[in-house]
Design goal:
Layout: H1 2-10, H2 19-27, H3 36-43, H4 49-57, H5 62-69, H6 73-80, H7 82-91, E1 96-100, E2 106-108, H8 116-125, E3 141-146, E4 149-153, E5 161-165, E6 170-174, E7 192-197, E8 210-217, E9 222-229, E10 234-237, E11 241-242, E12 247-253, E13 256-261, E14 266-271, E15 276-281, E16 291-299, E17 302-309, E18 314-320, E19 331-337, E20 343-348, E21 352-357, E22 360-365, E23 371-375, E24 383-386, E25 402-403, H9 407-416
Antiparallel strand pairs: 1-2, 1-24, 3-4, 4-5, 5-6, 6-25, 7-8, 8-9, 9-10, 9-11, 12-13, 13-14, 14-15, 16-17, 17-18, 18-19, 20-21, 21-22, 22-23
Helix pairs in contact: 5-6
């Protein structure tokens, strides 16, 4: 009986059912779950590049973006594209990597700075000797640095100016400032002049830049300014203004340069958009001799002023919510204590205030007000160098100029250095 039961359990055909129907049942037996292939097809549905870009833009650090982009070729292509880079750079400031001395010597920031590894990578990859520029490299002197670009000039008897990208070894020689109102700026009798890198033009490519040259013609007591645009390749000048003593120029904010008179009573403001000079009173905290002043962009259109009186152990911070008007618009914001009275200002940049104390260089973050030692030795008249280290996020900051390497070679070098495990990002 047991054998019969087993035989009965193994019986698969019913003589009452048509054999053709049984064969169809065997070929199309029902499945309770979808096939494994079905799950794979659903999981591989493509995510639009626009959505991937939005996700990447919300990653907290540049290092996270680089590591994530290494997951697949399509991610790398997206991150390396100019549309993504343009948006990324508007949301993320490039890190402070170090300081440039007048001669071009590069002093990278040191641990425990979070940018220390990136600074080391740039120190190895960039050419801060400027050997790719024409003429003896020693003739070029650093005047300013901004946005990964460096402004250089030659000796006092040669008013040549150049803007270069040391990381990608590109440069552009600027034309001489034209003769204006009988003044020949490239003559031997050149007045005292200071030159700076300005903001990129909003409507132009991200590789565009401006250069501002402010001159003081001492024997005629005149001030004048000239602005070079990389988009037009031309200089334009302000009308000369007379009747002012010499001014000491400081960093600019929101397209305006601020200078302080020798008697420390007035601010002379140069609006590089309108190409106009204007005068404003200094706030009481900033008036008088032996007072250090630094102007910064505080965000949301607010101009910030840091004031450090000689021999004091605190910094006063004031703000102004628009670019015009008088001293009544400067509002006291806060006091920032220092550990000693041996600090003095060295300058300022987009995000940091520079100070020196007993030979060491410090930065003060203008948003968090945190003081950090970044270099263990003093640097004479340093320029802050900020940029993204060699990676997919790093691209040339100068175009339409002279490229000392073939574009294909540059691209290979950039991609090769952009491994998610390459140095430069923590």
């Amino acid at each position: 009986m047991g054998g019969g039961a087993a035989d009965e359990g193994q019986t698969s055909e019913d003589p009452r059912v048509d054999p053709g129907i049984l064969d169809q049942r065997r070929r199309s037996s029902p499945r309770l779950l979808p096939s494994r292939d079905g799950f794979q097809e659903m999981a591989s549905l493509p995510i639009p590049d626009e959505l991937v870009a939005e996700i990447f833009l919300r990653l907290p650090t540049p290092g996270d973006v680089i590591r994530t982009s290494g997951a697949c070729v399509s991610f790398r292509r997206l991150v390396a594209g100019r549309p993504f880079l343009r948006r990324f750079r508007k949301l993320h400031d490039p890190p402070l990597l170090g300081f440039l001395a007048l001669t071009g010597a590069f002093f990278p920031v040191l641990p425990p700075s979070p940018s220390a590894s990136a600074a080391s990578a740039v120190a190895l990859a960039a050419d801060f000797s400027f050997s790719f520029l024409p003429g003896p490299a020693r003739d070029w002197k650093v005047r300013d640095a901004r946005g990964g670009r460096v402004l250089l000039s030659r000796s006092p008897l040669d008013n040549s100016l150049a803007v270069c990208d040391p990381l990608h070894r590109r440069y552009r020689l600027l034309p001489l400032i034209p003769e204006v109102e009988g003044w020949v700026p490239h003559s031997v009798e050149n007045p005292y002049r200071q030159s700076f890198l300005g903001d990129a033009e909003e409507t132009a490519e991200e590789t565009s830049f401006t250069v501002i040259s402010i001159a003081h013609w001492g024997d005629k007591d005149k001030q004048g300014a000239f602005v070079f645009s990389s988009s037009t390749g031309q200089w334009r000048g302000t009308p000369w203004i007379a009747g002012f003593a010499s001014f000491f120029w400081y960093r600019h904010a929101y397209g305006c340069f601020y200078g302080v008179t020798a008697c420390r009573e007035k601010l002379l403001v140069l609006d590089t958009q309108k190409m106009e000079f204007s005068l404003a009173d200094l706030p009481p905290q900033a008036s008088g001799q032996n007072v250090g002043i630094a102007i910064v962009e505080a965000g949301e259109g607010i101009t910030g002023m840091f004031v450090l009186a000689h021999g004091t152990s605190h910094i006063s911070y004031l703000i102004r919510r628009n670019n015009g008007g008088s001293s009544s618009q400067w509002q006291f914001e806060r006091t920032i204590p220092l550990v000693s009275s041996w600090y003095s200002f060295m300058g300022s940049t987009e995000r940091h205030l520079l100070l020196v104390s007993q030979g060491d260089t410090f930065t003060l973050d203008i948003k968090t007000f945190q003081l950090e030692k970044v270099v263990r030795r003093g640097i004479s008249s340093p320029c802050v160098y900020r940029n993204f280290p060699p990676s997919l996020l790093s691209s040339p900051t100068i175009s339409n100029g002279v490229d000392t390497e073939d574009d294909e070679v540059l691209e290979k070098r950039r991609v090769a250095s952009s491994s998610p495990y390459s140095p430069g990002f923590e």
